[in-house]
Amino acid sequence: MSSNSTPIMDPEELEEMTREDVLLAAAIIFFVAFFGLIFNILGITVVMKNPILKNSFGTLCLSHSIANSGVLFVFFIWSAPATYIQAQHTNGMISKLLGQLNILCWDACVYSHLAISFNRFFSIAIPARILLIIHRKHSHFTSNDEAVKRRKVEIRFFMQSCLQGILFFYEIFNFYYVSTLNTNQWYVFFTATFAWEICHCLDG
Q: Which part of the chain is the 7TM GPCR serpentine receptor class x (Srx) domain (predicted)?
């Protein structure tokens, strides 16, 4: 995401920001990133230890949580401190590298969403074909109870991916459209920065 996509506020309006506003904004960025990192690290741990997720879907979830963590890591170590100290020179090499890391992780989130969607489509839309492949691979047939249980798990994962998609749409819609409707500093903050950050926080 490019910061150029968000509305540019008038410099005089920026000067009117109180120190309390700055501290509050920095605190929000910091704590959302902090708890988001915890959620995603827990998600990574669950995926790695859960035997049900020892498959392609689990691998995609793992990569998705890692990408989310990368986005939140940049918010945590750079965006929050830069907001707190009101750094005026954020176009140095470090900020550019962190910005590239942020975009790289965000792109990884986009592609993992797409891959998860395809994965869930094949698991839900053509389960018989998938099960046949599994049967041939392991050279045995599962019982009806096991098939029903697997089906319920697949549906639960499908619902999870749908909720993640809705959350992702919320981020994109807010960042690229809703944030352009008003130039109030808090309006832009909550529809751009906060929307972007909270998406990756809850997406884990």
A: 30-130, 132-204
Residue 9 counted as domain residue: no
Query: What is the DSSP code string of 134-189?
Result: HHHHHTS---HHHHHHHHHHHHHHHHHHHHHHHHHHHHHHHHHTGGGS---HHHHI
pLDDT, tens only, 1-33: 544 444 444 444 444 568 888 899 999 999 999
For the segment 163-185, what is each residue's pLDDT rounded down to a tens digit? 888 888 898 899 889 999 988 88
What domain range includes position 133?
19-202
Instruction: Answer yes or no: is 11 within a domain.
Output: no
Q: DSSP letters of 62-98?
A: HHHHHHHHHHHHHIIIIIHHHHHHT-S---SHHHHHH
In a domain, 3, yes or no: no
118-140 exposure pattern, b = at least 16 Cβ within 10 A, e = fewer: ebbeebeeeeeeebeeeeeeeee
How many domains is the chain partitioned into structurally? 1
- Assigned token pair, 10: 């008038």
Q: Could you give the 3-state DSSP secondary structure of residue 2?
A: coil
